[in-house]
Amino acid sequence: MNQNLKSIFIDGEAGTTGLGIRDRLAALPEVVVRSIDPDKRKDPAARKEMMSGVDLVVLCLPDDAAKESVALADELGADAPKIVDAATAHRIAPGWVYGFAELAPGHAEKIANANRVANPGCYPTGAIALLRPLVDAGLMAQDHPVAINAVSGYSGGGKSMIEDHEAGSAPAFELYGLGLRHKHLPELQEYARLTRRPIFVPSVGSFRQGMLVSIPLHLDMLPGRPKVADLRTALAERYAGSTYVSVVDGALGGGKLEPEALNDTNLLELRVFGDDTLGQAVLVARLDNLGKGASGAAVQNIRLMLGLPE
Questions:
Q1: What's the pLDDT score for residue 101?
Q2: Do the Cβ atoms of 189 and 128 come closer than 8 Å?
Q3: Which of 33, 39, 104, 182 has the fewest beta carbons under 10 Å from its own?
């Protein structure tokens, strides 16, 4: 076997995100994925032994189980592998680096040098990508009252939702998270640098994967009353030269935008629609909730952490 191969263990590889990561890693000649005996998936000793023999572990587990896996890795001390956590458990935890490489200048280097990286949620990936550059540029106040609307394919909703949609028993469209306490809100607020809790209204449509995140804005409520072009310029400057994030002319959407165009990619498209005479704009992010919103981002982080080429 090639001694230069990097070894990876996906703890929870049978789920949607785990399978997606495994499929993407299969295309990388520089890595080998090691699997645990299915009968020992919940055996702490077996999992710990597996962790001791790999370079990196990806956690695709419920939050409590992810925390248990991290505790097992901690017991290995200096022999502990690097970890990418695809769960919500560590996204704002001390000592963890947030795994959105395009978050800010130099952030990809922080991921590359990290031992613990928390993969972002799908919705926050789109919202933070739109909001953070505007806050950093002073075009949006940190306490601005932000409202975020988003629609995802049903694959992001877990096993029961997937089964309902594929059986034809789920509604064509539904809002959810109307208790205003969606689990993605803490990271969204933290990494968009917002001091006021945003209102976030997610929804799911009867399509397997794909996502749109939209944020309406009144321009006269923003500092300096910027024009639509100013917002677009701030985004374009932040992501200039990015491999995966692009800023697209809003007019190319023709006043319409569908969510599935980036499926099976790690791409993220940002648009600014608006009308200066009306003083209104709508920011829109399009991505694959299973790609840049999950397994694609995880593999991007794995490449950075293991020093693998893009």
A1: 98
A2: no
A3: 39
